[in-house]
């Protein structure tokens, strides 16, 4: 409940807002990382791969023939650690999970960890989706910067700024940009297919816990996404 004060507020006090753990998932190149970056401070964005060792990442690398997964026990360890850390203390505000969960099993696993370790959070699942043609053309254009994004497995993933004067270079540090190996057309096609197969299970798993999945159109611009999410979070406030 809102705090009671002696002063009469000019506007109604906002209802007490429980922090939200917003899970942003969707097919590759839907714009998940870009959306997360636009919405919250990078410190408030959780990415599974940033919490596991380089050894684990290298052992689970995605190629055209193998779509690597991190072991469930390791995922559970990381989630538990993250949601019991100071970074996610009850008064620390909303967090975004970029590209998580990836399967229905991960939904169940995550929600049981939340219920036990971080019951103060309300979970808001958001799927960012787009037509395959949009995903393919975006992935063909996006580049990453190994210097701006040190990655434990040497596989940077976050979209880099492209220099205006020279599109082959990073707009932030000037290094030569690279394509993500997982954006190669054959690997990308596997990843999109894998996502399409997993998404129904993800939705069903959230529904099992009484959580509707909100879908954002990945072809809309960031401002529109921000407005939609703000409205969504405001409407969900009582939950
Ligand atoms: Zn750079």
TrEMBL record:
Its EC number is 2.7.4.3. InterPro entries: Adenylat/UMP-CMP_kin, P-loop_NTPase. Keywords: ATP-binding, Kinase, Nucleotide biosynthesis, Nucleotide-binding, Transferase. It comes from the Bacteria. Pfam families: ADK. It catalyses: AMP + ATP = 2 ADP. It is found in: Cytoplasm. Monomer. Belongs to the adenylate kinase family. This is Adenylate kinase. It comes from Catenulispora yoronensis. The lineage of its organism: Bacteria, Bacillati, Actinomycetota, Actinomycetes, Catenulisporales.
